[in-house]
Amino acid sequence: MTEIKVLRNILAANEDRAAQNRARFGVRGLLAVNLIASPGAGKTTLLERTIAGLSPRLRVAVIEGDITGDHDARRIAAAGAAVVQVNTEGGCHLDAAMVDRALGELDLDAVDILVIENVGNLVCPAEFDLGEAFKAVVLSAPEGDDKPAKYPLIFSEAGAVVVNKTDLLAATDFDLAKAERDIRRINPDVPLFPLSCRTGQGLDAWLEWLAARRAEYAKH
Ligand SMILES: Nc1nc2c(ncn2[C@@H]2O[C@H](COP(=O)(O)OP(=O)(O)OP(=O)(O)O)[C@@H](O)[C@H]2O)c(=O)[nH]1
Ligand SMILES: [Mg+2]
Predict the structure, then answer these.
(1) Total domain count for the chain?
(2) Which of 34, 45, 72, 138 to mutate for ligand 1's pocket (most ligand atoms within 8 Å of CB)?
(3) Which of 53, 84, 165, 170 is the most exposed place for a label (fewest CB within 10 A)?
């Protein structure tokens, strides 16, 4: 009983903080995206491509969530975007309080799209709202096409799904049509972007969709 109560309290406190983050984004028309995937699916590579593809039209900033180190933050800085590294020191996900603290390090008035790269994990990040406008989930071909069916919660919450590393499809048994069917069964209308960060194929559709989402969001 006690354990259940504690968990509820943690989640309720997180919801409050997430609502505060969401309000900070909302007043500025700043589109915040919670980017979630398994380790190595290509989150940081997609960010590097997204920063390059949207610049100078849109200003992208990044909060990098990792258990330890600043490897990904260095890559984002080299790509030319403002970045804050958050270390969870063992934690398997970011929470809204960590994002709140990181926001203090950014000039939010100079940002159009804020992407929060969550800790590589398809499970725990599904439980914690960060105040984002939507969650974007990246699945990559070498992981296997059974992942949507095995980790349905995160796919059901996704506001967009990227299927990355399509350049490797021929080298794997990943069945793109099956993965798409399974994703649609869980989340019928979710926008789906098969692409390769390596070759750039399919990337434009993602970039244009993201820019359109930001324009739509900034109107409200
Ligand atoms: N072949 C191929 N490799 C890719 C593609 N996108 C990313 N990679 C490679 O996949 C590896 C992992 O990419 P990252 O972007 O670091 O993945 P990540 O999801 O940010 O990983 P973590 O932050 O550790 O969870 C790197 O070696 C990338 O070069 C792609 O489209 N095709
Ligand atoms: Mg990364």
Answers:
(1) 1
(2) 45
(3) 170
> What's the pLDDT tens digit per position in 30-89?
999 999 999 999 999 999 999 999 999 999 999 999 999 999 999 999 999 999 999 999
Question: In this structure, which residue's CA is closest to atom 11 in ligand 1?
Answer: 40
CATH number at residue 169: 3.40.50.300
Burial class (CB in 10 A: 0-12, 13-18, 19+), 52: middle
Yes or no: say if 108 and 102 are a contact pair by the CB < 8 Å rule.
Answer: no
Pocket of ligand 1 (CB under 6 A): 37, 39-45, 72, 120, 164-165, 167-168, 196-198
Q: CA-CA distance, 171 to 169, in Å (whole number)? A: 5
pTM metric for this prediction: 0.96
User: Can you list the positions of beta strands (E) in the chain?
Assistant: 31-37, 60-66, 82-87, 113-117, 134-140, 158-164, 192-194
Q: Which residue range(s) make up the domain with 145?
A: 2-219
Q: Residue 18 contacts by C-beta under 8 Å, 6 or more apart in sequence? A: 96, 128, 129, 130, 131
